[in-house]
Amino acid sequence: MAGQRLSVTRRSVLRGAIAAGAMAGAVAAGAARPTSARAAAGRRVAVLGGGVAGLTAAHELAERGFEVTLYERRALGGKARSILVPGSGKDGRPELWGEHGFRFFPGFYRHIPDTMRRIPFAGNANGVWDNLVAASEVRFSRKGTDDTIIPMGKAGKPWSNPDSFRETVGSAITTSTNMGTSDALYFANRLLVFNTSCDARRNGQWDGVPWRDYVGAGKRSNEFRMLLSRTLTTLLVAAKDDKASTRTIGNMGEQFLGNPLETGNDGPLDRLLNGATNEAWIDPWVNRLRELGVTFVNAEIRGLELDGARISGARVVDSSGAAQTVEADHFVSALPVEVARALWTPEILSLRPELAGMSQLTVDWMSGIQFFLRRRTDIARGHVAYVDSPWSLTSIAQGQFWNRTPVTGLGDGSIQDCLSVDISDWNTPGMLYGKPAKECTHEEIARETWAQLGAHLNDRGELLSQDDLHSWFLDTGIAWDASQKRNTNADPLLINTAGSLALRPYSHADSLQNLYLAGDYVRTNVDLATMEGASESARAAVNKLLEVTGSDAPRCQVFTLYRAPELEPFRQLDIARFAAGQPNMFDA
């Protein structure tokens, strides 16, 4: 592969991991210890996990005077963090930033922005929130045909009734894609059916229907199948369209397409940070929590101990390998679903039997690779979806947005841009090696991903040049197992599969008095495995804790997703229709 690969060896990755552990220990040592007044009986909380859910729970609890200790095994920020590329900084320059995968902040996110406003940042009147910048377009790139570039922003006149809804949405799809009017209007009607469905139908009917079946993709054009069935699901949930829940995809469609004026949004529909995530968000957040008295401990959770109907302790192993049992009055489990469900003993399940359903929840892979370039790219002023790519690739060119920590000031000084790519399908064979990403070495993943990008972008002129490629960096959660000749992934992603809602728990149950769940698998309004879902679930957990303790502290604000008021009468009518076993009135 042209372009010098960065020297990221197993040893250097281990050095980075050790450094991260040392940093976490330094944070723990430097955090201000709560005063005796704050350590009053009943107010000690152990937060297990330091991703977005854990940091949110710690933030909300600390602001309300609780004594909070947060335990994190790897790195604060979880999947949302940035990752320093070991050995990439030269001649005194900072190291390059890699990441688990690029992230964006849709305007309908409300919980994350609310927290961001409460994280001080030098020079920003609104704290970290002021580090969000808007992306102005999205590009759908196709092999062998013209790409589609769609402006991001408020649509034209709003619709006022079902017929207007169909016409407006259908027209927008037709004019912005290569799709025929018939397909566009058909999809608009399917969206109308969902938007006029009552909650009981969304939960009881549509959650159990795969998105591909709901939109009837098998009977529509190839353009319809690729854009509105396959690409839409992989963009949102990294799931195949024959597996993804219609409830989840429909909820997102309601925000993206059913809210033309972005009513109730926190900001523009598509936003990114103006620098590396750690510098623009996570590190300032951790500093704020330290100021609030939160203690950070670098440790792995190994088990929970039960005393009657209460958790009496959490068994942890710290960074030195020492084992201990952590005691607290309350425990917030902010661990990923695949980690949390391993802690449920038969005794715990006897108290909360619904937690057994978590073992049936599906996780899959959605991880990122960054390509560092010697020349600025001009692919799109926003996200790009590579519609025909076997690995369901999406990307963002970060240089155009990073005015706070420019890419040009990092590394060896020759890098002008970073093309951050998410790989959403790790199970489909690629075009170079005929193997899925899970079975490719890291070098093969880089070559294969680069080839799939080029097949889309260079078919009508060269947008990506091999000569411009400086190096690449793959998410460190992806590890090659030479004995099995396949990769492992330390950070899989929850997939909202059809029928999975019933398997997802609420944050608390009285039968297990002092355990609260926070994470993107917990039932939330946003109903998607995202930072926003993690933040909302953490707020719900804290509110339950406040209720259990009888606290008079103000409750965390919890937001609901937008629903067009013009369609509310039809949703009310649908309540009776669903109860009577009748279809939605527009479901023809």
Automatic annotation (TrEMBL):
Keywords: Signal
PROSITE patterns: TAT
Residue ranges of every copy of the Amine oxidase domain listed in the record: 52-545
Entries under Pfam families matching the protein: Amino_oxidase
Keyword Signal in annotation: yes
Protein name: FAD-dependent oxidoreductase
Organism: Nocardia tengchongensis
Gene3D superfamilies referenced in this protein's UniProt entry, alphabetically: FAD/NAD(P)-binding domain (3.50.50.60)
InterPro entries, per database record: Amino_oxidase, FAD/NAD-bd_sf, TAT_signal, Zeta_carotene_desat/Oxidored
Signal peptide: 1-31
Keyword field contains Cytoplasm: no
UniProt cross-references to PANTHER family, sorted A to Z: AMINE OXIDASE, PROTOPORPHYRINOGEN OXIDASE
